[in-house]
Amino acid sequence: MNIIWLGHGSFRIEIEDQVLLVDPWLNGNPMLPEDRHEEALTGATAMLVTHGHFDHTVDVVALSRDRNIPIYAMYELSAQLVANGAIEGAGFNKGGTVQIGNVAVTMVPASHSSSMTVGEGTPLYMGAEVGFMIRGEGRCIYLSGDTDIMADMEWMGDFHKPDIGILSAGGHFTMGMAGAAYAAKRYFDFKTVIPCHYRTFPLLEESAEVLAEGLPGVDVVEPEVLEPIAL
Q1: I need a labelling partner for 151 at 20 to 30 A (CA). Which of 41, 52, 129, 161 fits?
Q2: Number of domains in the chain
Q3: Threshold 0.90, pTM exceeds
Q4: In whole angstroms, what is the distance from residue 172 CA to residue 175 CA?
Q5: Domain span holding position 191
């Protein structure tokens, strides 16, 4: 498989017979050059959306509609996106699993918030924020979405046994590098950890050094935009 960072919390995951886009943020993403958007999108078969905040959803409807890419998200969020023109893959909920080709995706809890501004109104809540367990090629990826450390990680690690962790770790809006290291060490047995939701803005952490130092024996990979991580 190839895990490809698109900057911030956005990923392209090439796994089994699928090319999954996770929270694809293109327009306004300071880390993703405009002349490389097509490279990020080519061949995409499905989109996973973790929550409603603009930096995770602003491009979802247009990409889904214009490129015929179905979306998979929390039930309420999916309903809102589909009402605006996105193509429905499935609206599901925590504990549910959907099959996308040869890839199984299970929705799991996160600890954050999930809202979307509709029209000129105030933000509306979109169900709940989530992460995903993504299974394929004999591996299990835990994609945390935006989250802090939470006790649910204990059973999630024990039950799903992910060997790859894609962890929000920039601080301010999510757990930081030290928190991500603590969570990974206490609750999971990762072979590989990839930090995200960092380096985007001055508010966020710039380096994963603290994460790597906190996880001896784990392959902590600092991603570079559009450079595949082959696992």
Answers
A1: 52
A2: 1
A3: yes
A4: 7
A5: 2-230
